[in-house]
Fold:
Amino acid sequence: MKFEQIKSELIAAPKSWVVTGVAGFIGSNLLEALLRLNQKVTGLDNLATGHTSNLSQVQTTVGPKLWKNFTWIEGDIRSAATCADALKGADYVLHQAAIGSVPRSIADPKETNDSNVTGFLNMLWAARESGIKRFVFASSSSVYGDVAALPQVEDNIGHGLSPYAVSKHINELYAGVFARCYGTQSIGLRYFNVFGPRQDPNGAYAAVIPKWIAAMLQNNPVYINGDGSTSRDFCYVANVAQANILAATATAEAVNNFYNIALGGETTLLQLWQMLRERLLPRHPHLREAKPVFRPFQPGDVRYSRADIGKARRLLGYEPTHRIENGLDEALDWYVTMHLKQKVTHS
Structure:
C-alpha cells in the first residue's frame, strides 16, 4: 500500500507542515495523524468553528513527546499577514479552514465568501511567497451541484446550488490560475460527507451523523429531509487524513488537479438511520420503537451523491481503509462519550 511507504519515508525524514482549521474536526485529525508520524506541525485557527478541546484531545492521545512538535497560532486566514507568518519555513500546507456549511452559506453568503474565498486567496498567495512545496486544500463534493449522473467524475461538474459550493469552485479556479501564473503546486481534495471523532454535534449546522446520534440518545425526533432516499458517499476521517498526506507527497504528475475523496459507494439517509439505530440499540433500548420523522427537502442540498475514486487511486495511491460500517463502529464510542460529557456539563 502506497500510504504505508509514505509513512515510513516521513518518519525517516520528518517535514514541516501547516494545518489551517487545526482545531476543527478534520484539522485536528490531520494534526493527530502527522504528530503520530513525528512531523513538525504549525496549526492556525481562529476558533470560529473549531474548539481548543479538540487540540486537548489530540495532546492526550499522542502524549507529551510528540506534542512538543506542535506550534499553535490563534489567528484568522482573512489576515494576509497572519497567513504569511504561519507559513514561514514550512514544506507543506494542508488548508482546511473554511465556513463549511451549506445552510449557513445561504443564510450569510458574505461570511462564507470572506473566509472561503478571500481567506483561501490569502493562503495561496502566502504559499507562493513562502516557496511551499505543495499546497493541499479541502474542496467539496458540493462543486458537482446539479449534475445528475452517478458516479460523480472530476471532469464533470455542474451549477453550484449554494454559496458554499460556489466558494469551493472558486478555490479550484484560483488554484489553477496560480499554477499557470506562478508555478504553484496545489492539489484539491473534494471531500464527500466526512465523519468521525471530534465532529461537532452541536449547533444549527451540525453534520447529520453526530446530530442524529445526539437526538437518538436524548430520545428526540430524528428528522430526515425528503423521503429517505437521498444518498451520500460517507467517508471516514482516517481516509481523509490518508488522502491529504498522499497528496502532499505525490509525484509531479498528480499536481494541479482535483480528486474525489470518498468510498465510491452510496448510503441513503434511511439506511444511515438504520445503521445508527442498530449500533445504539443494545445499550439504549428506548430506540426499539423509534422511527424517523420525514420533512420537506431543504434548498441548496444535493439529492444523490456517489464518487468515482479511480483517479485518486491511480495518481495518489489512495486506498480507503474504512468503509462506513467499520468507521461507525470505530467512532461510535467517541460520539456517545462526547454526548454524555456535554449532558453532564449542561445539567
User: Anything to note?
Assistant: The chain has a mean pLDDT of 94. The radius of gyration is 19 Å. The first strand starts at residue 16 and ends at 20.
